[in-house]
């Protein structure tokens, strides 16, 4: 027999009508107090910083859980939602607060360059990748991958990797590698033109960047860039697994169930398979190199000074086979996806801007006459094509390869945006900035800040009323009769990130992208299926990066300048 103390609520005799009334009244009062405390917030979150509004759809005690659920079930897209609410709730560039259960505490959406500048430069140490990133991405990108770590491990990797991005390397190894792959791509496109077939253009760019980056960073020929049309039918298992794993990892930021739940779902099963494919693929590259080293062979010749490529540099740091895996994966995501996606969006934008194609061709013609029929764009040639670079950057501005980002506060702090629109001492907010001063925001340790370069590109306060239009001219300036690419503050043209963690590969991506565009537009006319583009307009898939969900196909015709 269980002993129940007298008057215990577990004793049925306790529940007299009077006690039921008292208990219900107390519960109701507690609920009312909680609703007053969390009128639009998830229970347990801190008080919102004054002057910061929340979403109108937020519910008492649940915060934005319903929105997270809709995004999780693909009824809504996170980027569209941030854009929508920035224009309404955050009109004038004001911050907006949300409470998503998966991210624990409160999150502040800060899309003005003044805030981004503060978090990424002024108080860089406080706004880290943190637990949010690490817990969701470490199975894909490793415990110590450059994209997921902070502090010393990040600093060491960044310093080491920066060696392969030296100007000396560009003039030698980078140029040579790109040159070889451009020749392959041209042979393929000649065959596509001859056979008059249509090909998936974004897929071609993924193949190009995977091939060239694997060669550059790991001296590995991954044989994914064929010269024949038939070769395009061979799927690349690494690419498929990588695309899938990124989609899943991205969903983890909005999932309403705990992370371990994924393990028991079909997605979890497929994810484990994908991760296995990725590991097998990367270990093949690593093992080949380690055994070559064991035989005393020096492979890898990207770093002109030391005759070492990225993989060799990291092996020299004493990293084990297991520790090299995230290096390969992190750099592949950086080197393959971003540039390929930027090219895919660029070629989509110019489909509806023939005048841009015309101007690019004129610029190439004026600068190089017919030289580019025989050879490819060199690193030093880039300077002579400001219009082309502007056209490429404008596509990257509108379709940034990393469309959203999140940082977590490592301590309590106050974000103090600049009082003026003058960022980095450059008075250059093209949209004129904000009329009202932006509010300071009090942030508690563990809370997050989110910004979206995709949304920032569409904010009139930053880029002007024509912000959503594709206009390369906004990246051009003319001084003393000479036209050059306009340099914005990193926090304004933010697609390549800002501050100490600014993208390491910006010059590589710019050179590679421009070289591909020159090779294609000089030699081929692209024939788009305008009917299909109208009925099935390409849109983005939500992922860690910014792929096209429904890639488009094109045919090509050899230009008659040959
Ligand atoms: C158009 C192409 C590219 C864009 C738009 C881009 C953009 C970015 C962005 C936004 C970040 C910050 C990511 C974060 O905070 O998590 C980043 C970081 C990085 N990018 Fe790029 N990237 C591009 C191409 C490349 C290429 C080709 C490489 C070559 C390896 C590269 C290497 C890196 C690395 C290593 C980092 C990490 C930097 C750090 O955390 O210190 N990127 N990039």
UniProtKB/TrEMBL annotation:
This protein's UniProt keywords: Heme, Iron, Membrane, Metal-binding, Monooxygenase, Oxidoreductase, Transmembrane, Transmembrane helix
Cofactor needs: heme
UniProt keyword annotation of Iron present: yes
Pfam families: p450
GO molecular function terms attached to this record: heme binding; iron ion binding; monooxygenase activity; oxidoreductase activity, acting on paired donors, with incorporation or reduction of molecular oxygen
Entry superkingdom: Eukaryota
Family: Belongs to the cytochrome P450 family.
PROSITE patterns assigned to the protein according to its UniProt record, in alphabetical order: CYTOCHROME_P450
Claim: Metal-binding is one of the keywords in the record: yes
Name under which the protein is recorded: Cytochrome P450
InterPro entries per the UniProt record, alphabetical: Cyt_P450, Cyt_P450_CS, Cyt_P450_E_grp-I, Cyt_P450_sf
Residues passing through the membrane, by range: 20-39, 51-73
Gene Ontology terms describing biological process: lipid metabolic process
Residues the record lists as binding heme: 503
